[in-house]
UniProtKB/TrEMBL annotation:
<comment type="similarity">
    <text>Belongs to the methyltransferase superfamily. RNA methyltransferase RsmG family.</text>
</comment>
<dbReference type="GO" id="GO:0005829">
    <property type="term" value="C:cytosol"/>
</dbReference>
<dbReference type="Pfam" id="PF02527">
    <property type="entry name" value="GidB"/>
</dbReference>
<keyword id="KW-0808">Transferase</keyword>
<keyword id="KW-0963">Cytoplasm</keyword>
<dbReference type="InterPro" id="IPR029063">
    <property type="entry name" value="SAM-dependent_MTases_sf"/>
</dbReference>
<keyword id="KW-0949">S-adenosyl-L-methionine</keyword>
<keyword id="KW-0698">rRNA processing</keyword>
<feature type="binding site">
    <location>
        <position position="76"/>
    </location>
    <ligand>
        <name>S-adenosyl-L-methionine</name>
    </ligand>
</feature>
<keyword id="KW-0489">Methyltransferase</keyword>
<protein>
    <recommendedName>
        <fullName>Ribosomal RNA small subunit methyltransferase G</fullName>
        <ecNumber>2.1.1.170</ecNumber>
    </recommendedName>
</protein>
<feature type="binding site">
    <location>
        <begin position="128"/>
        <end position="129"/>
    </location>
    <ligand>
        <name>S-adenosyl-L-methionine</name>
    </ligand>
</feature>
<comment type="function">
    <text>Specifically methylates the N7 position of guanine in position 527 of 16S rRNA.</text>
</comment>
<feature type="binding site">
    <location>
        <position position="81"/>
    </location>
    <ligand>
        <name>S-adenosyl-L-methionine</name>
    </ligand>
</feature>
<dbReference type="GO" id="GO:0070043">
    <property type="term" value="F:rRNA (guanine-N7-)-methyltransferase activity"/>
</dbReference>
<feature type="binding site">
    <location>
        <position position="142"/>
    </location>
    <ligand>
        <name>S-adenosyl-L-methionine</name>
    </ligand>
</feature>
<dbReference type="InterPro" id="IPR003682">
    <property type="entry name" value="rRNA_ssu_MeTfrase_G"/>
</dbReference>
């Protein structure tokens, strides 16, 4: 069974300090307030925003392990899922949110300022294809592109130890199957906490088939 809103909030409250919860509440309020002006999340999911979007994003956080600073890039961030949620939860992360739609870019920048995290959240307001290559420790993408399109587009942002976190709904296994002849790496399908039918593709050492290890940058 899917998580209820109450369960979702309780799950988050159990894993973040009060100040972070306040930031997440403010983030939720800003998105709901913006909804009449732009369609940031499917209207049908607005009343389930904590389970469908906040926890669905936050569940990526324990997958990165604790420790030092991380360079993280979130592809096709939309309203900030999962990138802004992760940035609120992990102060050691330097987050780049890639988003191509003008209104969403402006809104992401406004939210980062309002939430007091603009010093470590950069909004790359352009198509991913136009962004200069740079290595990131974590690459996330939720509802952005199927794996066979995503990997060729995003591989130039990885290094040999990059962790890929790709929430995939119900299509995880079939998307993975579709890339087995063209890509190699350590790919795992992890069940989602928020939806029993959904899963997250967690990958590392991702390379085109037949290529050796890339150097660490
Ligand atoms: C379906 S939405 C998902 C948004 C968010 N990740 C989420 O899960 O709610 C996909 C987003 O990717 C953006 N997008 C699509 N193609 C893009 C590209 N080539 N470069 C940057 N952003 C892109 C769209 O504008 C849109 O906001």
């Amino acid at each position: 069974m899917s998580m209820t809103e109450q369960e979702a909030r309780a799950w988050i409250e159990g894993c973040v300090p009060r100040g972070t919860m306040t930031g997440l509440e403010k983030f939720v309020a800003m998105i709901l307030d913006e909804m009449p002006r732009q369609n940031l999340i499917a209207a049908s999911t607005a009343e389930h925003i904590w389970s469908r979007h906040i926890v669905d994003s936050a569940q990526l956080v324990p997958m990165v392990g604790g420790g030092g600073p991380l360079r993280w890039i979130d592809l096709g961030s939309g309203a900030g899922f999962p990138g802004m949620v992760v940035a609120l939860m992990l102060p050691e992360v330097r987050m780049t949110l890639v988003e191509s739609r003008r209104k969403r870019i402006d809104f992401l920048r406004f939210m980062a300022e309002s939430l007091g995290i603009a010093d470590r959240v950069a909004v790359a307001g352009q198509r991913l294809e136009m962004l200069d290559s740079s290595p990131y420790d974590v690459i996330s993408a939720r509802a952005f592109a199927p794996l066979d399109r995503l990997l060729p587009l995003a591989h130039r942002f990885s290094h040999d130890a990059t962790l890929w976190l790709l929430p995939k709904g119900r299509s995880a296994a079939s998307e993975l199957e579709a890339v087995t002849t063209s890509w190699q790496g350590d790919f795992r399908v992890v069940p989602s906490k928020t939806d029993p039918d959904a899963a997250i593709i967690v990958a590392s050492q991702v390379q085109p088939q037949g290529k050796g290890q890339k150097g660490r940058r």
